[in-house]
Amino acid sequence: MQPDTVTAPPPAFHIMLKPRGAICNLNCRYCYFLAKERMYPESRFRMPDELLEAYTRQYIEAQPVPEVTFAWQGGEPTLMGLDFFKRAVELQQKYKKPGMRVLNALQTNGTTIDGEWAQFFHDNDFLIGISIDGPAHLHDFYRRDKGGNPTHARVMRGLEFLKQHKAEFNILCTVHAANAPYPLDVYRFFRDELGAQFIQFIPIVERANDTGYQEGAAVTDRSVTGEQYGQFLIAIFDEWVRRDVGRVFVQIFDVALGAWSSGRSGLCVFEETCGTALAMEHNGDLFACDHFVEPRYKLGNMTETPIVEMVASERQRRFGQDKRDTLPRFCRECEVRFVCNGGCPKNRTLTTPDGEPGLNYLCAGYKAFFTHIDRPMRIMTDELRHRRAPANVMFVLAQEEAALERQFAQAKRNDPCPCGSGLKFKKCHGSRRR
Ligand code: SF4
Ligand code: SF4
């Protein structure tokens, strides 16, 4: 299929490449990608060498930026074997433009990583995303292998190899029905047990259907609810903003600071429009987004149409602009729209209170979270404007809280509560005295 009219290409775009398609050695119960195997019934699910070479050349040629990131995903990309990635790096060196920096980011379940992989990742500056959902009892709830066995111990083993070989890693934690009630157990495990510096919390909103596509409004009971997701983020933020700013980086907190301080979050989910984060299957089929690997969203195949043409097509531009143009009025008038922008279209399954479709399933959580962090975000933004470290927020809040504690100590039972709630002290913070 040819993409329709070509418009000006975007300044930079990003493709998640799936060299092994949806093939994985695990069977995580909430995985949205395993079902994609059914789209290619005859396939061996291995990207051939000539396609890898053509991809590398086209991807580099199409990027008008000095730094290009190759993103490897699956399924489980390490099932391609180490030689495939050695060849990928070789091809990147062959085709990179003078002065261009080529980076690699690979998302893995961590269970296949040994010393050899870890050494390779270190030597070639790969950034490794490890999927882990918290301590063993929370991780193993849904992250099982094909035999139904727990996987946490194997992930920890892979992580140890990465640490031993000083390979860079970050944590990708999905938030679902099983771990959402335990935000601090999850966060402290990453911070204190794993020594993680970079963490992403991705909400599981899993459609309840047999197609594996974004169809129907019902979600499975493994999905996190909007309220749960909001409370999960709030609990972690409250701990982070008091002790970890500047030493632990949580993606959604950084993204929020970007929106407060510069008006740009930098993450497609919270940008006004999207469409520059695409996904490519093992055979060269290109799709509008990793969450829309479905026949309806296929832009074409790179062996028939150059990647840059598909990315720049009117169809893909419309996909990205629809994120803004289909936003219901409820969102357009929302106080936190500047940071939320209605979230990812894949999760817009609800109707607004006035009956308009297109409200995000996670709306209640986004609203609660973004409202809750407003004051610390303003403090950090102010620090940035004065060319000071946002981490100063920790001192500002500590001072304010110490002052408030002194007021609590002096307050009488029937005084208005110093916290400003409007309640009598005895009904509010004074109740702690009893
Ligand atoms: S559909 Fe969602 S995940 Fe995909 S590019 Fe748009 S905002 Fe990002
Ligand atoms: S918080 Fe809810 S209403 Fe506000 S922009 Fe986000 S999804 Fe829309």
Biggest sheet overview: 10 strands, mixed
- The overall pLDDT, averaged over residues, is 94
Number of strands: 12
Which hetero compounds are present in the coordinates? Answer: iron/sulfur cluster
Through-space gap between termini: 72 Å
User: What is the string of helix and strand elements?
Assistant: EHEHEHEHHEHEHEHEEEHHHHEEHHH
Describe this structure in words.
The chain has helices at residues 49-61, 82-95, 115-123, 136-139, 152-164, 183-193, 226-243, 251-262, 307-311, 314-325, 329-332, 337-340, 363-372, 374-385, 393-410, and strands spanning 14-17, 67-72, 101-108, 126-131, 168-175, 198-203, 249-250, 277-280, 285-287, 298-301, 350-351, 357-359. It has 434 residues and is α/β, with parallel strands linked by helices. The chain has a ten-stranded mixed β-sheet. A two-stranded antiparallel sheet has the order 11-12. β6, α7 and β7 form a beta-alpha-beta unit. α1 packs parallel to α2, α3 (115-123) packs across α5 and α7 runs parallel beside α13. The N and C termini lie far apart (72 Å).
